[in-house]
Amino acid sequence: MEPGSDSFTLTTRWSTAADAEGLAVVHAGAWRYAYAGVIPEPGLTRMIGRRGPGWWRRLHDGRARALVAVFGGDIVGYALFGRCRSGPGGEIQELYVRPECHGNGFGSRLFAAARAELDSRGAVPLTVWCLAGNLVGLDFYRALGGRETGRAREHVAGAVLEKLRFTWT
Ligand SMILES: CC(C)(COP(=O)(O)OP(=O)(O)OC[C@H]1O[C@@H](n2cnc3c(N)ncnc32)[C@H](O)[C@@H]1OP(=O)(O)O)[C@@H](O)C(=O)NCCC(=O)NCCS
Fold first, then answer.
1. Pocket around ligand 1: residues whose beta carbon is below 6 Å from it?
2. Potential cystine with 22: which of 35, 71, 75, 78 (Cβ 3.0-4.6 Å)?
3. pLDDT of residue 4
4. Mean pLDDT of all residues in 135-156
């Protein structure tokens, strides 16, 4: 297949249980990339281990689904989103791109697709929480126009970590 054909265009679609392996690969790679040195070991490895293909199959059993980004036939990223857990509107809970695919606009495309879906449900404003130690994540959400509207602390793997809230209205 030549570059430029459909297979080499980024597309987004809803996930199914058959995507469990691909989703677990994206999650593991992106978590290591974002949280090594932020979430202490061995907690980070344990948390990644819990989110293997079985976790993703169970998610689909519960009829939840992710928005996946597909490029060249592979899942290169995903977003999980829904109602905001800490206020009105919607929330993107997870948005991850495979590290080897960073810097190609895939994260922005996924964000825009997730936001459009939440907008269509009337789930406004949009909230995203990002760990303060995830500097790339902070730059990404700032670049996409997120306003910093709060801070909180969260217990993660035995550590107390600061996180920032971004809002889009
Ligand atoms: C954050 C993440 C989703 C960005 O995905 P991506 O596909 O690389 O992002 P894009 O190529 O769409 O970049 C969009 C903008 O974000 C900013 N950005 C992205 N990566 C950046 C980096 N490493 N350093 C600084 N700014 C960055 C830039 O402004 C970029 O625009 P530009 O390319 O025109 O300069 C990806 O790095 C990732 O999965 N990280 C690990 C998980 C994570 O942090 N998720 C978000 C927090 S929950």
1. 30, 33-34, 95-97, 102-108, 130, 134, 136-137, 139-140, 143
2. 75
3. 45
4. 97
